Amino acid sequence: MNWADRIGRRIKLRDLHILLAVEQCGSMARAAERLGISQPVVSKVVADLEHMMGVRLLDRDRKGAEPTAYGRALLARGLAAFHELRQGVKDVEFLLNPTAGEIRIGATEPMLAGLVPEIVDRLTRKYPRIYCRVTQVATLLHHYEGLLEREVDVLIGRVPQPQDAANDSTDVEVLFSEPILVAGGINSRWVRRRRIDLAELVDEPWILPPPDTLVGRLLVDLFRARGLQVPSKGVIGGLQMNDSLLATGRYLGVYSRSLLQLKSRRWGIKALSVELPPQNSAVGIVTLKRRTLNPVAALFIEGARATVKSLRLDFDMPRYSNSRLDVRSG
C-alpha cells in the first residue's frame, strides 16, 4: 500500500473522529446524532475508509455496529494521533507562555500521601500557572496502561527490578532507594524496644498491604527470607486505614521509608527497631520511550529530582539507576 497515493493525501482526522464516534456509540445513527451530522454522511465516511484500506472496519447488524480487528487496529493508532495532536497544541501554548501548562501525573498511594504533594507544592510555588492533574494508580505494571494510552504524562512510584521487565517500551529514572519498614503507633508497646526480631511479630495484629501490590510482595519476601509465615492476624487495607488503627497501639504496619520520613510525626507513628533482610526496591519516574516529553512534564521531573535531593532521600541508591522497563509486562 503506497502511503502517499492511497492514504497520505486522502485520510483525514475527521474521518477517524467519525469512526471513533461509531465505536463509542455502538451505531452509526447514534454517532451521527452525537456529532450533529446526518447518518448518510457517517455511512459514506466509513465506506470510503473501508475502500481506502481494502478491509472491513465495522461489522453491522440490526443491533448496531462494532469494530472488526482491522477497525480496532486503526482506531488504536488514531487515538494515539489525537493524543499527540492535543499535546502538540499544549506544547505550542507552553512555548507562548513557558510558566503555564498542564501535567498529568499517575502516582501510587504512598507517593500521593508523601512525596508528590512536596513536589507539586514546590513546582506550583515557582510556576503558579502550572496545573497538575493527579491520578492514583496501582503498583502492578499491567495497571500502568494509562501511560501507553497517553492518559498520563509521567508515573511516579515504586518500580520493579529490571529482571521483571520484558522489554524496553518505557524509560525509568530511579530517584532513590525505598525499603519498607515496620511501624507502630506511638502508644505501641513495641516502640520502646531497641531491638526486635521479626519472628516476635508474626502473631501480632497487622495491617497488611494487598498481596497483589509490589509492597505486598516485598512483605512476603521479607518474611520468607527469614523462614517465617506471613502474619495472618489483622486486616488487609490501604494507607487510609493505617494511621487510625495504628493509633490504637495494637496494630503493626509497613510503610515506605520516605513516607515515614515525611509524615511519621504528623500521623503519630514510628518505625520499629526490627532487623529486616536486605531489600532491593526503589522509587522512580516512568515515561514512554521514544516520546518527547512536554515542557511541563520536564519541569515536573526536574522538580522531583530537586525535591528528592533537598529531602536527602537519594542516599543509598540502588545499582540499577538507569533501568528500562515495559509497563505491559508483569
Short description:
The chain has 330 residues and is α/β, with parallel strands linked by helices.
Give the tags:
Arc Repressor Mutant, subunit A, D-Maltodextrin-Binding Protein, domain 2, five-stranded mixed β-sheet, alpha/beta, single chain, 330 residues
What does this entry look like structurally?
The protein has 330 residues and is of the alpha/beta class. It is 42% helix and 21% strand. The chain has twelve helices and 14 strands. It has helices at 3-8, 13-25, 28-35, 39-53, 69-96, 109-113, 115-126, 145-148, 214-225, 239-246, 257-267, 295-310; strands at 58-61, 64-67, 100-107, 129-136, 154-159, 170-177, 180-185, 196-197, 206-208, 234-236, 252-256, 269-271, 274-275, 282-288. The two termini are 36 Å apart.
